[in-house]
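Internal ticket #5521
Category: modeling
Description: The requester needs a full-assembly model to guide mutagenesis choices. All entity lines are attached below as received. Residue total reported by intake: 499.
Assigned to: D.W.
Attached entities:
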Amino acid sequence: MDIDKTKCVGCGNCHVICTMGAISLGEDGKSVVNQDECVECSTCYRVLRNEGYPPWFVRAIRKALFFFKLGYLADIDLCPTGALTPPELTWPRILRAQFSNPTVVHPGTGVPGRGTDEIKSNDVTGRLRQGEAGLVVEIGRPGLGAFFRDIEKVAMALAPLAPIFEPENPVTHLISDFKTGRMKEDILDEKVLSAIIEMKIDLERIPVFLLALEKVQREIDTVISVGVASRCLPDGTIPHEEWVQKAGYPLSPNGKTNLGLGKPRFREDEP
Amino acid sequence: MTNTLHRQGEMESLKHDYIIFAHTAKGKNREGSAEKNREFMRICQKYHPVNMGDVKQGSVLHDDIEFQSLLATMEDGTVAAAVFTDIDTLQKVVEDLIRADLGLCINISGLLDEVRKCCRRVGITRHSAEHSLGVWGALDRLPEREVMEFNTMCGHGMVSFNLIRKMIEQVRLRRMTPKQAAGMMAKCCECGAFNPARAEALLERMRSRGFLHSEKRASSHGLATLPE
């Protein structure tokens, strides 16, 4: 995100809204964006209404209030002068928007948000079948963000275990070597709000993968939200529960359920 | 929509937090799904969700988005979502969706046991399920538990830690009501998965229990849901 210095009056509303805390007040009394930390999520631009006042008018009002020792508590959800300006993004910076702005559809998967399908359409795709588990490893969530160099560390910890990286996943498209987990060199300094490594593994290998994650979590300077999924048994029980518990990890009482109402329904005997 | 998987909070609070959403798959049921998504939204709307939206256009809690215009401009392949605060109402939505037979992939995020019971009551067996194994890594960089309860209601991460702190502070100073503060947070969430009713209840609870009194997270990986 850019801020038009000729318009900004330094009200600070965008500082609070910024998901990465990347906007601050510069020495000139106007807001400035730390471009290294900004993930181009555009939350500031979308949420703060542009009041469209001329900057000189806002400054004059403020000076007048200050003169009379009066304060004014403006609404937090507005930018009085419309100073926020979304830039034209090019590669590799455009990845920031693709992974951080949920309204942007990932070009590779056609899915908005973080661009992943997981179990959400498993009833029609059969992506996860009986005996298989889906592992979703979201790096940077909640709220801290992640550089691709951290995402690469996690990918490199998991790749030697030979999972099947989900082909319809935006992170998979950025891995240059699936044996080592190395990612494309030119993206490593790009920061995103979060990115999901999505894999398919055999159920009984869940403990091995969780152990690898346990080790790599200490090597990165951000957080990871971990999820595990599977196709339910005919009586509705969840087969991955047993393997996660065997590995010694607690399961959350809340989670996601695919009701199986999608059509055409995938049949287990399909190739 | 992994954004609805890792919601944190006490069990009592999570009992009032269910998100139902429609998804499609390329080459399977995505093509021509716009009208079905509209019908999904109409069915949800009938039961008065506390939030709803479409990730491509935003939620109905945004200043400039009306329900009818949201419907009119829905496209194939969007992810439509609605938030309900009790499982009984959600069950009625599911019953209507079964009758409508839209062929969309319908998912619910919420307490898994409650959703399973709901499935049984309406005569279906759940197809697939996903658990959160919590947050790992640099947990010492995360804020207090109370802040996380708000932040994880928008898993896309649109509700910043700083905004949540500011809203808590505004409520503490009585400059905003819990409803206003919850509404401000909900405006940041694009897809309509944020639960403003639960956020309001959390802020009300803070008034009686105290503001931001919990310790920061421990340094080991934690559960997505916190003990009561």
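Resolution: model delivered.
Comment from assignee: Chain B has a mean pLDDT of 90.
Ticket closed.
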